[in-house]
Amino acid sequence: MKKLINYFIIGLFPISFLFSNPILLPQAFISELKFDENNKWILEINFWYDDPYLQQKYDSICIGTLNGFSRIKLDNIKDSTSLFVITSDSLITPLAINKDGDNIKLYSYLSTPYFTEPIIDSLVFGNNPGSNIDYLQTDYSIARLYYSDIFAKDKSPTIGFENDTVGTCGTLSGFIYDKNNNLVTNGNFILDNPIYIDNNGIFTTSVYSRKVLFTGLSNNHKPGQYQWVRIDSIKLNVNPDSLYENDIHLLTDLIVGIEEKQSENIDVISISNYPNPFNSTTNFVVKVPTELQSAAKEINIYNITGEKVYTINFKNNNQVSWDGDDREGNPVSTGIYYYQLVIGNKEYKNGKIILLK
Known about the structure:
- By secondary structure, the protein is mainly β.
- Helices cover 0% and strands 47% of the residues.
């Protein structure tokens, strides 16, 4: 059942509802986009106040598209408002969003020493670089999924309400084979969502509606312990309520995943990073026992799909930094990343970072 939320249709009229379960990011961010029967855009925006650290004052919130840039009127937004809905009438200067495709950016200007530059959230769709939504059907929306940076097509829009996953998924089905091409008949695997395997060895799983390239899946092989398992790439363009048949072939590469791995010397080895969240550079501080000081050390950084995006190699110094670039020197996108400390080819500690731009 959908939960009602506080929101304002700025320039139209205020309505009050209930709200819960936010994503804790110190910024305004895009929650959902829809076009009405006259092809006029309606944009749902969320920003959070539950954690005192995140109760930042917004100097302004601006929106940019391929057609221009404008500031949002914030006169009617109260400190208790977690979600509001805007139209072109909500802007200081009216601005168009192209229904066939656009690059929407939301700029949060905060009165805080922690973020001297605007924090930018974005939604790209249509035939534009970086898009994973090819087009938007009539009466559909593009909705952000909770606790992620994933956008999906939604055939059951919830503008003005808490987003859910109803109408956002297709189904993937087939067989799973191990590295020796043997049929896998059980296991706690997760792709976008948990994978279910029936008595005949056929798996089914829900996949969020967007263009996606899967290169790995998660295996919850022990309580609280996850492994990222490499697979033969699966490329899909998923639409809601559609069925896709594709076998999954597991490969030999394994990546220890998002939970902290217990190991020898775990009590005397530590890694932390600051600031977190960060928007330009984050610093890692590593503490290791004397006997491991001279060993080769590296910090591997992965995105939420388990793909390694960067490796920091170091030996004697115990403080290193990452500027948010990938291995090719290209800036990575806003989102959640995981890091793993490796000393002498042995995996020790893991953690999570949030990159905001």
